[in-house]
Structures are given as structure tokens and as C-alpha cells.
Amino acid sequence: MMLKSVLAGLAAAASLASGAAAQEASFPVAISVDAAKTEGPVKPVWRFFGADEPNYATMKDGRTTLATLGSLSPDRVYFRAHNLLTSGDGTPALKWGSTNIYTEDAQGRPVYNFTIVDHIFDTYRERHVKPYVEIGFMPEAMSTRPQPYQHNFRPGSGDIRTGWAYPPKDYAKWEELIYQWVRHCVERYGKQEVESWYFETWNEANLEKYYWGGNQADFFRLHDAAVRGVRRALPTARVGGPDIAGMRDTYLTDFMNHVKQAGTPTDFLSFHAKGTPSFIDDGNGKGHVRMGLSTHLQVADHEFAQVQKDATFRNTPIVIGESDPEGCAACQGPANAYRNGTMYSSYTAASFPRLQALATRRGVNLEGVLSWAFEFEDQPYFAGFRQLTSAGIDLPVMNIFKMFAKMDGQYVAATSDRQLPLDQVMASGVRGDADVGTLATVDENKVAILVWHYHDDDLAGPDAAVRISLAGLPAALRKGATMTHYRVDRDHSNSYAAWLKMGSPIAPSDAQRATLLEAAKLTTVDGPAPAVQAGGRGASIDFRLPRQGVSLIVLEPAAPTR
């Protein structure tokens, strides 16, 4: 909803309210924003994504989803995928993919084939997405335990660790494969382009039951050889790791000590952090999802603390290589029922600023927070996987990243009297009072204010009656401004709610699909606009925000009148 010249003294109508929602109880929230008090440059940590299944990227809905991601911040968005070196014909399955990059002839001599992996990276770059290159997994011809090779995972069952997960029979061949691959990438995409990528080795090698069939020493040897191969091909390549699962262990410390002793170049550090949702039985055959934000934050802070203690790496860029509400995108079940709707979107809005706050408090350099969520090709609509789109239709969570992308420039001072303290959320989550928090930025004459209304329990609750008090506005805004109020909630930017409303069709008609695509867009609030009062260098904005809702208020100079 556009509201023009709001800061020139024009007051808008009453706060957002519609139907029965207008009669519901609410609680007051006071937010203060001082646009003149800057707190450092905006770090777009949100612009990293990934998935187990690399071949989905080249399929119809994968290409669409990548295009959406690339449009958020062209040539600054990164994508990480498993299985880029896995043997096979490129046919994807849940938690599986392949490129057949390496085979051997009858004499055991290497045969390199970059066709499939080139197609994957070409698809990224055509959509302004860059590779966050995961060097894995082990080609069948190189594995020390090649059979069985492809795992038999299905949601809820199946062994994961098969032939792809084991160390190489020949580390020299492994290093040469990486060298030949990176050299080929430089020839295909150019030195400057490949210098902008990230290169890391393997995935969660500390989970030896799942992703690694060797021990720690074997992984360190694998990593060192991979980095040598990358740097032989491109001495200026950005290399790092270890992209371990955050298990509250000391693996990251062991890794830092190892690369220092071995002299292995390390341009960034990476680890994973996940939450722990559960299903709460409410009795009478009913129940609800309870999110585990506290676990997510505790795991991240444990890893931050290890980096903080190491003087060599304290200022090294960190990428949380997978950062999610839980650990298995391809799994389904009651505890994962948060994914299609606004539980996932509000969790995302509430968690990213807190991960940044933890890094700031530890004095470490958080560069990226990678959402391990993409899409699952040719699955039923809203099938319950952890994804950004379903059948090519954006889910509410995707619209949070669209909001993040509109926030740039400098952070400014912003506080909410109903934002729960960081230590409280890290210790016990959001189990009592709701968390209504805020983040604000200024970019020249544009002010953007993010407000989330989050609770760990997926239960109904009262709206937040929000009042934003603005101070220190740029002079261009004081002369007259345009306000845009974006919203993700039960009624806005929500394809899943639209699908439920039309009766959850298994196969939506063309007309229904068009309706879903329209509902999936990031939209502005309808009906009465947030009330705005101006005065001097400041203003106040009033609106109601439902539980699990997220608002983004953007103020920009009004176009001059003739």
C-alpha cells in the first residue's frame, strides 16, 4: 500500500485491521528507530543457499527458483550443492545427485567429463548466481569402498553412508581431479569469475555415521589435497572449510590447529547450525509444532566461541554453511509441519539478526548464513519438504529473503520493548511472551524497518499493536516521503494459505495455479494503511502485526510534484 507525502503532515487512516481480526485482543509494542545513528554497514549474510540435489538446478522449477534467488542481488548470491563429484548419469533423487565427472579406463587411467557439472554451473551463472563449490563426493572409481554406491534413502528410512562417502584409494588422483576441474572452470568462466567463488571440501565430515567413512585424519588429508589441487589451478582461489555439522564438539578447533600446522591456506571458516523442532501433543488427538530456535543459536555460538579463542582466525570470514530450523530438508513428518506457512518465514526473520548479534558479541566476522533450502522437483504441491518454492511457486519464506534484499546501506539504531533479550532466547527460546523484534537500515535517503512477530509454538495468539517512533530522518524524507508496507502473514504473500483456501487441490488447474502464483508474490498490506504522524525530524507509524507476521516498512523520498 503506497502512502504519499506521509511526512509532510498527512495522517493516514487507522491501523491495519480486517474482519474478525479487528476484534481480537492485541498487546502494545513500542519500537524506536533513530535513522541518524548508524551502526555499521549492512552485511547481506542471507544471500547463500544450497541443496543436496545438484541436478534439480537444471530442471524446470529449479531454474525458476534460481532465477528468483539471482534477482535478489545479482552476482552476489551463492549456491552450495552436494554430489558435484558423485558418479552417475545425472538423474536426481532425494538427497542424491551425480555428474559422472570422473571415471577410469580399463588401465585405471583417469577419464574426466565436465559436461553435467558445467551444465549445473552454467545454469547458476545464467541466473546471476555464483557457485559455493563443495568438493565432494567420492567418485565410484576412486572410493575405497565403492559398493554399494548409491544410497537407498527415503523419508524416514534408508542408509545414507554408502560408497560415495569413503576416502579415495589414491590421494594423488583425488588432488589431480580437483586440479583438472578448477583449471577447466578457469578456462570456461575466466580467472576473475572463479576467484569470486568459494571452495570447500566435503560435508559434515564429523558425522562419520552419515557423511564420512573415514576418520578425522583421513578428512584432513582429503582437505589438504583438495586445497592443493584448487590452488595449483588458481593460486588466488578462495578456499576454506570444514563445513562440519555443529555438534558442540571441538572439531572446528582441531581443524584450525591442523591447517595452521600443515600450512594449508584457509580464507574462510565454515560450519553448520540447526534448530530442533518437535511435535507437542495437545490432547484430544491434536497437537502443534514447537520450534527450537534456542538450539540453533546455542550451536552457532559454540562454534563462534572456538573461532574467537584462536588469534590466527579470529577475523577470518565465517560462513554458516547450513543454517536451518532442523537438519533434513528431504525428510517429512509432524515436527516439520512448519515449513509451508508463516512459522518458517517468521522464524527466519527472527533468527538471522540474532545470529549476527551473536557473531558481533563474540567479535568474529560472520560473512554468510546459508539456508539449506531450494526446491524438490516434480513433487506434490506443498509436500512438506524444507524448500523455498513448491512446484515453482514461492513459499512465504522466500518473501523474507525478498525483504532482506531491500535492506542495504547502514544499520541504524532500532529497539523494541517486546524483543526478547538475546540471552533469554538462546537459553530457552520463545516459549512465554511473543518476540516482536526489529532491524532497521538507511541507504542514502531510504529507510527500511523490519518487524517480526515470532513465537516458538505454532499456536494462535493476539496481534501486536505496533507503534514505530522514527527520529533522525534524512532531510529528503522530511520534505515528503512515500511509504511502502510489505507484509508476510496469514493473508499476505502466502501461497500456502491460498492453496488451503481453494481446498488443497492435488493438481491445481491453470486458473488455480495463476492464483497461487499471484498469492506467492511479496505484496503490500491492503485496506487501511498504517497510521503515520509526522513532526519535525521524526514520525510515528502505527499498525497491527499478527503472530507469525513480518512487516517491512520502506520510506523513500516522494516524487516532486509539478
Short description:
By secondary structure, the protein is α/β, with parallel strands linked by helices.
Can you describe what's shown?
With 562 residues, this protein is of the alpha/beta class. 28% of the residues lie in helices and 28% in strands. The chain is built from 13 helices and 25 strands. The protein has helices at residues 60-72, 115-126, 171-189, 191-195, 216-233, 251-262, 293-309, 342-362, 396-405, 422-428, 475-478, 495-501, 510-519, and strands at 2-4, 26-41, 48-51, 77-81, 102-104, 110-112, 129-135, 198-201, 238-245, 268-274, 278-283, 286-290, 317-324, 365-371, 389-390, 393-394, 410-416, 435-443, 446-454, 463-471, 481-488, 523-524, 531-535, 538-545, 550-557. A hairpin with a 2-residue loop joins strand 15 (389-390) and strand 16. The longest helix has 21 residues, at 342-362. The two termini are 23 Å apart. The relative contact order is 0.16. Keywords: Glycosidase, Hydrolase, Signal. Residues 30-521 form the Glycosyl hydrolases family 39 N-terminal catalytic domain.
